[in-house]
């Protein structure tokens, strides 16, 4: 993923990131299914999609944590 794309996605809202995450997971599922039936031309694409989904999840969690504010430990 290019750094421009990363910065562009990082500036999206949580809802937009969730939509992007669902699309990435759907594409990853279809590619895995296709790979089970017949070998895909570029199997590294699965790794790229998996990492993209993980990156999106990280950004979603960061934004949710930032909006929740600091949480002190309750004892």
Task: Explain what you see.
- It contains 3 helices and no strands.
- Helix 2 packs antiparallel against helix 3 (44-68).
- It starts with a helix and ends in a 7-residue tail after the last helix.
- The protein has one domain.
- It has 75 residues and is mainly α.
Structural class by sheet pairing and helices: mainly alpha
Spatial gap, N to C terminus? 43 Å
Give the SSE order as H and E letters. HHH
Question: How many β-strands, per DSSP?
Answer: 0
Which regions contain 5 or more consecutive residues with pLDDT less than 50? none
Q: Give the fraction of residues assigned to helices.
A: over 70%
Q: Mean pLDDT, as a whole number?
A: 87
Shape: elongated
The largest sheet, given as strand count, sense and whether it forms a barrel, is: none
Instruction: Tell me the strand percentage band.
Output: under 5%
